[in-house]
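Key result, reporting period 2: structure in, sequence out.
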């Protein structure tokens, strides 16, 4: 049973870069033809797919966020990372990491971590 756990700062200042790590256990991020994604849910809104990194290291990004988003991985730690630059208060959300059979779908998801953008 795969488990995903998000970690990172809960508060980020405007214009800074948000960095989150997803630690994976119970399965390798390089195996099984899976895609490892990041999603977020702003207050009062629906879930938004941000991007993903595949088992082979290929990255995929939402067109609306592609200029500010970077996803990378550390295979030695079985982790993958989200970086979102130039954040504004509109980036305040609960951020989730997930695993799925396609870049923009998921079957397993972490519990989520709240990130607030505020000065």
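The corresponding designed sequence is given below.
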């Amino acid at each position: 049973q795969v488990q995903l756990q998000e970690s990172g700062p809960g508060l980020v200042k405007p214009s800074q870069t948000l960095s989150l790590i997803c630690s994976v256990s119970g399965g390798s991020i390089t195996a099984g033809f899976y895609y490892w994604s990041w999603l977020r849910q702003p207050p009062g809104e629906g879930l938004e797919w941000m991007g993903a990194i595949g088992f082979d290291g290929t990255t995929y990004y939402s067109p609306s966020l592609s200029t500010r988003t970077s996803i990378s991985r550390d295979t030695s730690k079985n982790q993958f990372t989200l970086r979102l630059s130039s954040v504004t208060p509109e980036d305040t959300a609960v951020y989730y990491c997930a695993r799925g059979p396609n870049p923009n779908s998921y079957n397993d998801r972490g519990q989520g971590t709240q990130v607030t953008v505020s000065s």
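The mean pLDDT is 97. The longest strand covers residues 18-25. This case is discussed further under Risks and Mitigation.
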